[in-house]
Design goal:
Length: about 180
């Protein structure tokens, strides 16, 4: 996702967007939709493999897990969209997205240690990062057997990110200077 807008800036084809009647939101959402589709296909394949090949039972709500995954994919592609709107080259976009997404996900989202054990800035970053809510949601769906209504808190938190990130990306997307 991070290279989609950056590539158009680098090649110069973003000028085509600026001369069309399409607004920034339509352009950015149009760029984001294929990546959301790819992310959801990956989610379905991986969930299928985990349940049937690795035989990990899904004790909770499949619907809640799927809705949560959709919201998380929208949020994570939104992060790439923001980085892509801020950067001018594809290389910069790739490096910036790697740093911006991998470090908080690995260190502050509950992947290594529970977010509740973090203090100060680490806790704030963890609670502000979308991966925190998706990790909590997936553990709750797979191992705790929670139903859809029990997962709505995490789903609601995840659903906040995407609209905010698309608006932020639209604000950051400027006409390319010569």
């Amino acid at each position: 996702m991070a290279v989609s807008v950056s590539r158009e800036k680098e090649v110069g084809t973003i000028t085509n967007f600026f001369v069309t009647p399409t607004n920034k939101f339509e352009f950015l959402i149009g760029k984001q939709l294929p990546y959301i589709a790819i992310g959801m296909i990956n989610f379905l394949i991986l969930t299928f493999l985990v349940v049937f090949l690795l035989q990990v039972p899904l004790k909770g709500s499949l619907l809640g897990l799927t809705v949560g995954a959709f919201c998380y994919v929208c949020a994570s592609t939104g992060i790439g969209l923001v980085v892509s709107s801020l950067t001018r080259t594809q290389v910069t976009a790739v490096f910036a997205t790697t740093i911006v997404s991998l470090l908080p996900t690995a260190l502050f989202s509950g992947l290594v240690q529970p977010t509740s054990t973090l203090e100060g800035g680490g806790y704030i970053i963890g609670m502000a990062w979308p991966a925190t809510y998706y990790m909590h949601l997936s553990v709750a769906a797979f191992t705790k057997g929670l139903n859809f209504f029990d997962l709505t808190g995490d789903i609601m938190m995840l659903s906040i990110y995407s609209p905010f990130l698309v608006v932020f990306a639209a604000v950051c997307l400027k006409k390319q200077e010569a």
